[in-house]
Amino acid sequence: MKYRLLHAVCISLLLTSLPSWAQWLAPEHQSHPLVGKLWYSADDRFTDIDELIDSLPSGSWLLMGELHDNPDHHQLQTQMIEALAAQSRLGSVAFEMATSEMQRELDAWLGRGQEVTPEDLGWSQGWGWSRYEAQVRAALDHAVAVIGADLPRDAQRSAYQTGAPEGILDHAHSEFMKDLLFSSHCEQLPREHLDNMLQVQLARDQHMAQRMTQYRVSDKVNVFIAGAIHTHHDLGVPRWMPASIPVKVLLLSALSESTNAQTYLPLSYPGSPLAQSSADILWFTPANAPQDYCAAFK
After folding, report:
1. Does residue 179 carry a pLDDT above 60?
2. Is 200 helix (H, G, I), strand (E, B) or coil?
3. Helix segments in the chain, DSSP class H
4. Who is most buried in 11, 15, 24, 279, counting CB within 10 A?
5. What pLDDT does 292 receive?
């Protein structure tokens, strides 16, 4: 009991000190005035990790949207898992990076996170183990369950051919997502394939929402780790979650020059039927050095 209390205090002290934390890994904007700060979008105010965790209702899902190549986003995910565990509030942890076909392996290694290897889990080489090792180990050690949330490859191919099981959301969402898919593929994807690609994206979000609904622990806080777009209230998984399940979206936001927190909040797509913002909380981090991922196609 004394150890658990001490561990909780240490985690809390570590997280609340993040604005001046010296261990940032991404090189850009480490001294930015917003770095390490948490910001509520609804009432335009800053908060701290203790208030955030205290505000998360039992049975909720906390969606942590990342940039896949930002090491500070990965650090903060691990620390959030450990902070909730230290308060005995951690429920399930779901990963976009693991498919539902991996569930048997994830179940088998529950409680043995420090021993597991990527080969034990059948971890995809497409999701670099070095990026997600700490989060997966912490989740296996502390969570009630660790969930492979994503749609398996065979089912993704089926969705490409026959469409997402639950269809589309609205025309404006579809058009926005197709533009996003086109730009994210360096404008190299043939436009005639965009409708099919959209169906894969929708099928993945629908499947992840189903998995999260199925494995939600009703008396604890559940955590979902995924790329940012999958976590947006207006674009991704939250659109397919039952309204009865509380969902909080925490976007891990890499900083640029602006010191105005509001400018980092992604705008909802034109015509969105939702009144709420795309994210509830932004957690500001340093950024990687600028890189043109499409340079090879120019």
Report:
1. yes
2. helix
3. 2-16, 49-55, 71-86, 103-108, 118-121, 129-142, 153-162, 171-184, 194-215, 228-231
4. 279
5. 83
Write out the two tokens for 220. 């604890």
The per-residue b/e assignment along 227-252, b for 16 or more CB within 10 angstroms, e otherwise, is ebbbbbbbbbbbbbbeeebbbbbbbb
141 neighbors 113 (Cβ within 8 angstroms)? yes
pLDDT at 189: 85
CA distances in angstroms from 28 to 33, 202, 254, listed in the order given: 13, 34, 9
| Residue boundaries of the structural domains of the chain | 40-151+216-259+276-285
CATH number of 40-151+216-259+276-285: 3.40.50.11550
As a whole number of Å, the CA-based R_g of the chain is 19
C-alpha 136/C-alpha 106 separation (Å) is 10
- Residue carrying structure tokens 């959030």: 80
Question: Distance between CA 297 and CA 142 in Å, rounded?
Answer: 43
pLDDT given at position 296: 74
For residue 264, give the amino acid letter: Y
Averaged pLDDT of the chain: 93
Q: Does residue 16 carry a pLDDT above 60?
A: no
Condensed to tens digits (0 to 9), the pLDDT of residues 93-110 reads 999 999 999 999 999 999
The residues, any chain, with a CB within 8 Å of residue 284's CB and separated by 6 or more, are 32, 34, 35, 36, 37, 38, 39, 253, 255, 261, 264
What's this model's pTM, rounded to 2 decimal places? Answer: 0.92
Among 210, 259, 271, 263, smallest CA distance to 235 is for 271
User: What pLDDT does 108 receive?
Assistant: 99
* Band (291; pLDDT cuts 50, 70, 90): confident
Helix, strand, coil abundance in the chain, percent, nearest 5: 45, 15, 40
